[in-house]
Amino acid sequence: MARILIVDDEPVNRLLVKTVLEHAGHEVIEAADASACLREAQSHLPDLAIVDLYLPDTSGVELIQKLRRDPKTNGMRIALYTGSNFDAPVRDFMALNRITHVIPKPCEPQELIGAVAAALKAMSP
Question: Could you give the domains of the chain?
């Protein structure tokens, strides 16, 4: 299965996603903030990062831009994990940064598994 990095400052959100994805057979790495995400992404090179848009030390938008600027993580698939509504600027950002999937908060386990499967099948950025 895949190596997946979950980036969310809420421990309960990380635990939920981790539990569901590990049960589905994936290896899960956690990061509570952007700094930890950058370290984990560099050292583990995950197949997919599931990134919350609102993080304590920087925005998810800034984090994704940093991941895309780094040659080592540029090709990593990224899915947004958020409860936010999506306006035109967010959709434009997603297109510009090759983000094809959004996982809503909250979501049912089967919805999470389906979204992750779709993101993993998507053409590598």
Answer: 3-121 (3.40.50.2300)
